[in-house]
User: What shape does this take?
Amino acid sequence: MEYFGGIDIGSSTAKLVIVDTAGRIVAKALRRSGIDYGKTAEELRAAVCASAGIDRSAFGRIISTGYGRDNVPWADGKMTEIACHGKGAFFLFRRRMTVIDIGAQDSKVIHLDDTGRRTGFKMNRKCAAGTGAFIEEVAHKLALDRAELNGLAERSTRKVELGSFCTVFAATEVIEKIRAGVAVEDIVRGAFSSVAKRIVEMDAVDGMLVTTGGVVAHNPFLAKMLGEAFSTEAFIAPDAQYMGAFGAALLAGETG
Amino acid sequence: MAETVEPKKFAATKVMKEIMDRYFNRLMGPGSEGKKIAYCTSVGPAELLYALGFEVYFPENYGAMLGSSRTATDMIPLANARGYSPDICSYLTSDIGSYLKGEGPFRKMGFSGPPKADVLVYNTNQCRDVKDWFEFYGREWKVPCVGIHTPRAIGDADEVIIGTVSRQIEALVKPLETVAGERLDMDRFREVITLSRTCTELWNGVLQTAANIPAPLSFFDGTIHMGPAVVLRGTQDAVDYYKVLLPELRKRIAEGVGAVDGEKYRIYWEGMPIWGKLKNLAVQFIELKTAVVASTYCNSWIFEDLDPDKPFEGMARAYTNLFICRDDQWKEEYIRRMIRTFKIDGILYHNAKTCPNNSNSSYSMPQRLQEKTGKPFVIIDGDLNDLRCYSEEQSRTNIEAFIEQLSQ
Assistant: This one.
């Protein structure tokens, strides 16, 4: 059996996915990206080999992606996250779509036609608003664990606006809300709404809306709010956090 | 992983360096004392100033030096602290910051610093910032600051507009004669305009060579070799330089040598250069087998309307028929012509944070042009000089993803 690999070294987490020739995920692993991307990549490779019970020699091609795509010396090639998230999402849904990947440091809007060909894309500006970094900042200000956020937002009963473009100023708004005695679940929902609004400002949605990335994987309520902001249903891709690595693995299979 | 590549060098660069060294020496070197110095904006009335015998200094050229040397971000905060906002022109803030700090690239070249002006002459055809910039020095040195107020967002540059600008240029003669201490010699003025016109034709010839496939020079080369066309237009030195550079480019064409080996894609660069990242960007595009073959920026120093028989009117036309002061419809038509001439596959818009006048991605032009031409675009956020506004990693990914898209 031949396997292909995709490794996505993101700004926060690194993911490795192994697929078979039919594009089925055989093994996957995730680690904090850390400060030594090469070492993290090695650990991921060992983890997927152990999980799938295969030897590293069983790998066909491996494509790297993400911020650390140049730091995987054993990758056979590299592609951007934009190509990989698009590839992975199209493989799963196969129709004209807009893929929105919300990562830790950046967000991307990717347009694909009904053949999977990319027709355009947008990345966020040099700004953390509309990214996972913003959610983390808000969690920090509210002394919450990131894992608590989705449940809190779901329980919110009151609409709260965080209007600032800037993450730092939005965090100041959070402090104002705390001072005003606003319920924490309403503040979290306001933060989710802020992320959705920043993304709506980036670009329009054509066709089906598919969301990917770690932020929606852990906060499905945010994807729901994103859909509402775009007046459409937002689908969360299966294995959303692994979508970049999955797409990279599929591309490895194609170019092998 | 790709090996590190280097942009190809031009033999003519040595000649350019000699010419520029002579120019800087005339302004600041031994024997420069007592010379009359006029500051001029980069698309200001340089021909009139040279004709009146001034040594002409262009602060924007120095701004680009501060950017290229990546020292601008050390200077900008000093100007910010004096009330010059981080949101306004970073040429202005880095230059004024450099003045306040008493440091800069000229010191490293052995000069005491930029020359002191006897008069400052602007044209607001590009922006209001140049006027505010020059007025700082006017107040500082108590010297006259005069200029031309060109209308902006011009659709049809009709006779009313040209007449207004022409009369403003003519009205500068008297105050400039007073500072120069001599009368304007119309024959000399026509000679200077003829030289400037010749420089323009040669510079245009240089840029047009990039219509060839593969392109023998890139936008990044252009930003370096345009120096004489900016600061020495109207002099024999500039003409002489392009007579050296142009044959070298033609030789490259004859030998099939491109600026990018294995050129696959051809890009148009809209907006200012990112001076502190020219080399990095040039290398990234070489690695991506992509030639940035044409730009609004380098083409902005082509002044085909200069006319020695109608010196004032010709200058008015030349300096009003600029991309930067035209309306979006005119700009779209211009870029469409460039797409055809240079066989462009896609457009990169540099959204320069401190130069809204040179950022044309803010009023939906990329979307309109894509619809009309079918050519895709990418927008990168950055700045001419203020690298605090630039994310290298984000831009790298944006550019790489754009070329992936072209290669589908």
